[in-house]
Predict the 3D structure of the following.
Amino acid sequence: MVASAQLAAATPTSATAGAIVGAFPAIRNHVTTAIEDVLVNGTDVQTALDNAKALADETLAEYNLLNAPEN
């Protein structure tokens, strides 16, 4: 079974969710998708990583905007 399929099949619990640090869960999904794209769909590794980084940067920027400390 492909690792991303194992992750997708796992029952969501606090044990399977991973660390909840900022936008980590969403960014982890971007990385998992990139890995799947490379292994299953034959996407070029650098292209998959570049796409994951762009999505992760966007996700983190949105998280930071929504969670900015009040002055």
Notes: Helices lie at 3-9, 24-39, 45-66. The chain has a mean pLDDT of 88. The first helix runs from residue 3 to 9. The CA atoms of residues 5 and 14 lie 19 Å apart.
